[in-house]
């Protein structure tokens, strides 16, 4: 098995708490910071082993990760073998399709040196632990930004702000995930952890040896315009026989995501939600787009998107069977995101306009930032031709998170009616007038192993 005593909790297992704070800081005094890191912060860091058992979970779990400029500031100049990490996220806005003028100023540049992740059942617990950490580190750091994440209340727990169940599909990590659920792809640990089996970076630039069992953490503050998204669905119900307009709107949302709000995959339940399927971990992930289905067995892959549009969010980011597995399997990420911001107010709903900031504090882990986040965002999500080789060569960008500069985007395959009528004429796009997910920026971090943290402190 993997050395899970040494791997930070969030990487493979997630923090498993309903509240999580992201505290971004700059280092003012490297010597003091490193001394405190070794003596007082490292003992607070939660390992994977600790988070996995309720008996050993701390009241507030703590993880830490560093940006490239953070490591340099601390005197760590070893090569980690990742050019995106060295460049920083702000320098890649055009590659990943972000508008830098919409970024929070805290992320615009390379001044963030690190992030502390604090997770607990209550915000009060988090604030207590943060106060403790701030008093330990004193003036050796400055707060640059913070984002308070929280699971949504009541029956919306586990759902992101548009209303869809999140956190369902994750790759299975060899030598860690047990049991492997039906539909989960087993992936070697080196896809996520540096220096483990099948780590794609083996030759020059080589990884520094102390970086083994660390992982690159991609953070993104993704604002969601929920009342605007809801109005778009209400105004554009799919016109499908036997569905009311409200059901047509619900179907449009489900086809944009690829799952119903419950989490049931539309590929397996294409015309109506199936909460029983959604709640069954042995079935809710057990599908791929190669499996023949109606109306023409064997044609689902390239010609038929009756059950699931080629453009659906979960198909764009994980094209199960649309590509050769040897290609597909290089681009898995482990997601550890949490919603931020309050519920939609009555006034916002009435005006169909966002006035309170809310969205997703997106976190992904990968051993190579290009293969993971950057590839997904630039080669799949924002590429109108992906998945390639389909009957429609312009599938469109991802209708949930894809962007063509913020303005309207033409998405094909969302309306199933056109395929009932004439499968040779896929040119029946739904026009999405604007982005409902707006990036407010982010940064690339390295989440070291616990021994890696000791190495950094001693540098
Ligand atoms: Fe996505 N959403 O609510 O629509 N995502 N995502 N995501 N996402 C997934 O399977 C969502 C974002 C992936 O293996 C589900 O857990 C929203 C980024 C991947 O089947 C839902 C935002 C990236 C998967 C959402 C957002 C990804 C996935 C289904 C932003 C990568 C697994 C639930 C605000 C760059 C796919 C689940 C698979 C699933 C939503 C962002 C990637 C409901 C609202 C930026 C790999």
What would you note in describing this structure?
- This protein is α+β, with helices and mostly antiparallel strands and 459 residues long.
- The chain has helices spanning 9-12, 30-41, 48-52, 68-73, 83-87, 93-96, 123-137, 226-235, 245-257, 275-278, 313-316, 325-328, 346-351, 370-381, 417-421, 450-458, and strands at residues 19-27, 60-66, 114-120, 141-150, 172-173, 186-187, 215-224, 334-335, 338-340, 359-366, 409-411, 430-432, 437-447.
- The strands form four sheets. Strands 7, 8, 9, 10 and 13 form a five-stranded antiparallel beta sheet that branches. A four-stranded antiparallel beta sheet has the order 2-3-1-4.
- The longest helix is centred in the N-terminal third of the chain and has 15 residues, at 123-137.
- The chain is globular and about 70 Å long.
- Residues 292-299 have low confidence and may be disordered.
- It binds delta-meso nitroheme.
- Residues 160, 162, 164, 166-169, 222, 224, 257, 259, 313-314, 317-318, 333, 335, 359-360, 362, 373, 376-377, 400-401, 437 line the site of delta-meso nitroheme.
